[in-house]
Design brief:
- The protein is α/β, with parallel strands linked by helices.
- It has 2 domains: 54-115; 127-303, Ribonuclease H-like superfamily/Ribonuclease H (Nucleotidyltransferase, domain 5).
- It has helices at residues 2-48, 54-66, 72-83, 93-102, 104-115, 167-181, 193-196, 198-206, 223-236, 244-260, 272-277, and strands at 127-136, 142-150, 156-161, 186-189, 210-213, 290-294, 299-303.
- A hairpin with a 5-residue loop joins strand 1 and strand 2 (142-150).
- Helix 2 packs across helix 3, helix 2 (54-66) crosses helix 5 and helix 3 (72-83) packs across helix 4.
Amino acid sequence: MLCLLLYLVCVLFTRLLILNTFKRGNTCAAQRKSAINHTSAIAFQSLRFQAKPAWVKHEVMRLAALMPNQGCRKIADVFNRLYQSSRNMTVGRTFVANVMRDQQYVIQVLRKQIKHQPPKAINKQLIWGVDLTFKTDSQKQTHPIFGVVEHHSRKVMTLAALKDKAILTLLRCIFTAIECYGKPKIIRSDNEAVFTSRVFTISLWLLGIRHQTIEKHCPWQNGRIERFFGTLKQQLKRWPIHSFEQLARDLPIFQFWYNTIRTHNNLNGRTPDEVWNGVDIHSRPVHDVFYFNAWDGLLTGFYRPP
């Protein structure tokens, strides 16, 4: 009887010990799980609020300078599209807004630098830019003007007043320029119907010239001819035109002034003709220089014979 009692006491004590150990194990596991969750939360918070690399801030400022009319949401979207997969980096609109607010002056300086950045050098006779503009005379008659600009030298190959803007009329002007200066590899135009027609495209293909069209509503992609037309329109606003015949007489004078007399900052102070002919103005001695004045003083300068 005594042995049975001792046996029951040992079994009961063993069960109590096992139960106490199990409870302690559950408590330690719960503590470990809680500690892991707390550590993960701290790591997540530190990862979330850690400082971005310096290049992220600079890239946000560059995008803000390139897109002056866009807000922080759009700039954040563009940044994430560019760098989320390639560099595993994203930004939020709050971060972009803070950068744009704190770096307003730097962004303005970047915009000015981008605007005045000289264009990349282009090989001679690689691209011709073509386009149409219009001039209304004093009789309320609108006349189309066709222009062709060579991208390397900015030389105006063709500047002609047209009675119509038919495809054959434009092709005749291009053929005349090719006879005088040779053909380019690429002719760039906008998406006007006359330039995207099959006759125009096939004609250039037969000549071995690739026709390149810009994106819709993106005139800056054909910037050489657009910049030339800006100068032309500025002078035509101050010069009265009374008829088509007068416009046809005056445009060659403007073309001569633009090519041989007017200097360009992006050409290092040289004229388009000097760049086209490869003339070094600093190594060539000056002999005869003639003063040029046309359009009642609107077109002035000094002409240096070749």
